[in-house]
Design a protein that fits this description.
Distance between the termini: 58 Å
Strand order of the largest sheet: 11-10-9-12-8-1-6-7-13
Helix content: 25-40%
Shape: globular
Number of helices: 6
Length: 248
């Protein structure tokens, strides 16, 4: 079984975010980047298939050379090899076209992509890939098992969960639940050393349309100062809740 795990290179949530060029460009200076959490859940599940069913795992990312440490971390966790599409991932359709081309050339059985990335939260790429290739697609996946070419999976839906039976090849949008945070793998020294010798292939992008462009970024408004009200001053509390907070 061949598995492809799509990896997004995203800012750590603890990083301080700034913008440049009149707030039209993200400033990456001083920002720590990590594997997108939804992708990491998928990678960890792929490692389980590797250990239990002798699957081979390739990780892929669309981005410049700055994404290679993130791919190396995925290799240190246990992926067999990596691919970097040498392009700036500015548009979901463009990224989906690049990944679809990799999938066609690699004949993968399972393609795992996080249901959305931590930076833009668009949630479009996995579905677009499935549409381009005509593959079975399951989003918000919380469980998956494979026997031969038969797949049984569970996805999260409004108000509950749905169990689905389908066949390979399949694209899934992974999230927490596919594995739990306690099950995530931390690279050990042996994995880090081995990752240095694993193959990281760089491919040039295919021609694809770019349909969207970020015009301007805007930070959330800072929180206002807290107003403290004495415990016995109920009239003032009611006045503030009614006139300022407008919740009553």
């Amino acid at each position: 079984m061949k598995i492809l795990v799509c990896i997004s290179h995203v800012p750590d949530t603890t990083s301080k975010i700034n913008f440049t060029d009149d707030d039209s460009q993200f400033d990456s200076n001083g920002v720590q980047f990590v594997i997108n959490p939804n992708d990491e859940f998928g990678l960890t599940r792929a490692i389980w298939f590797q250990e239990q069913q002798a699957a081979t795992i390739t990780v892929v990312s669309v981005g410049g050379s700055e994404t290679e440490p993130t791919l190396r971390k995925a290799l240190a966790i246990g992926a067999n090899d990596a691919i970097r599409v040498n392009a700036n991932p500015t548009d979901s359709f463009f990224v989906a076209k690049q990944l679809a081309e990799i999938i066609k050339n690699g004949a993968y059985d399972i393609i795992i992509a996080g249901k959305e990335s931590l930076d833009y939260n668009g949630g479009m790429v996995p579905g677009m890939i499935a549409g381009i290739l005509g593959y079975n697609f399951l989003n918000s996946c919380t469980a998956i098992s494979v026997e031969g070419t038969n797949v049984k999976a569970v996805r999260e839906i409004d108000g509950g969960k749905e169990t689905v039976s389908t066949t390979l090849p399949i694209i899934i949008g992974s999230q927490k639940g596919l594995v739990e945070e306690k099950d995530l793998r931390i690279p050990n020294m042996r994995g880090i050393m081995t990752a240095r010798t694993k193959t990281l292939t760089i491919v040039e992008p295919i021609t694809a349309s770019i349909h969207t462009k970020a015009v301007k970024f805007e930070k959330p408004a800072p929180k206002s100062a807290v107003k403290l009200v004495a415990a016995d001053n109920l009239d003032e509390l009611i006045k503030l809740l009614h006139n300022e907070a407008k919740v009553i």
